[in-house]
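TL;DR need structure tokens for one chain.
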Amino acid sequence: MMRLINRTSRLGEMYRNEKMEKYGLKGMHHTYILNICNNPGVTQEQLAEIIFVNKSNVARQLAFLEKSDYVKRAPDPKDGRKLLVYPTDKAHDVYPKVANILSEWNEIILEGVSSEEKEVLEKHLADMMEKAKTAVDKVNKE
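>> reply
TL;DR here they are.
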């Protein structure tokens, strides 16, 4: 089952890369754009936790997005060691386009699946994600 989920995920990345290329985005950039627009002032550490990646990966991706004028980083006035991340106007402009690309992909892969089946599938996938998170958290504490 995980093999199929992983392959579907990789195909989704290929689809997003092709569709988002005209905006200078690829890979996981959509995740950063959506989360930063939805949580302006989020810290890099919080982003790492939200999207389940390590802090160095977040720093690299944010450096690219900052250079591309999608985000701005500023020191946290309460704790100068932390950086807060804010979307730019360019990020807000591309947000609905990115959301539409993700919606299109979901429509493509879920074509022919009933609303009820989608609800059940989403619940099972959410349960699987929580179990995976619990397992990773447990391993990290060892």
